[in-house]
Write a structure and sequence with these properties.
By secondary structure, this protein is mainly alpha-helical. Helix content is about 45%, strand content about 10%. The protein has eight helices and five strands, in the order H-H-H-H-E-E-H-H-H-E-E-E-H. Strands 3-4-5 form a three-stranded antiparallel beta sheet. Strands 1-2 form a two-stranded antiparallel sheet. Helix 3 packs across helix 4. It binds iron/sulfur cluster. Iron/sulfur cluster binds next to loops.
């Protein structure tokens, strides 16, 4: 009889492997998570509030995490041009370089032994589980911009795309980024 391992147990073991690996490079697991998020988030989503919503931790933890990353020269904080009371966080070149040594890459590498179809199915299934759990808890999906109901392909200001919610032009790379305001089109 096949040994069918319960999915929560497998996820718990995977999470433990990642957690144990995530003390690399002099960073803590939450600092790695914040760096990963900032490398994927669009310009409307790189605020302390958006990082807090994405990580699902307290404001105090995010504040300490961002201060530590800034001290290490991995991020910069600047006044948000669109909202002068707000702060926009950006990865530095050093921060982007640090992500080349991201401990999570070992999980990605382990999945390369699967076929492309199996990898795509696993990714879609895991995403479905995450979205359901977030929805039940009132969390935001943080999906890719191009899947958002406010995403329009034609732009009046020269960019290839446009956000009808924020009234802003979007570049091709913006369309791939994740967003705090994203709402699934389907
Ligand atoms: S289209 Fe949606 S995901 Fe893209 S920037 Fe606008 S609100 Fe964010």
């Amino acid at each position: 009889m096949a040994d069918k391992k319960p999915i929560p147990i497998l996820m718990e073991r995977l999470a433990r492997i990642l957690l144990n690996d995530s003390h690399a490079g002099g960073l803590k697991p939450t600092q790695w998570e914040a760096l990963r998020y900032l490398s994927r988030a669009n310009r409307f989503s790189r605020s302390p509030g958006a990082v807090t919503a994405y990580l699902g931790v307290t404001k105090g933890t995010v504040s300490q995490t961002l201060s530590a990353l800034e001290r290490k020269g991995l991020i910069t904080k600047a006044t948000d041009q669109a909202d002068r009371r707000g702060v926009q966080i950006n990865l530095t070149r050093q921060g982007a370089k640090m992500l080349q040594h991201d401990p999570a890459i070992s999980i990605e590498t382990a999945t390369r032994q699967m076929t492309a179809i199996d990898r795509a199915q696993l990714s879609a299934s895991l995403e479905g589980v995450v979205l359901r759990l977030l929805r039940d808890r009132g969390g935001r999906p943080f999906g890719a911009c191009k899947t958002c109901r406010h995403f329009k392909k034609s732009a009046p200001k020269g960019a290839p795309h446009f956000c009808t919610l924020l009234g802003e032009p979007l570049t091709a790379s913006d369309s791939q980024a994740i967003c705090v305001e994203q709402e699934n089109a389907a």
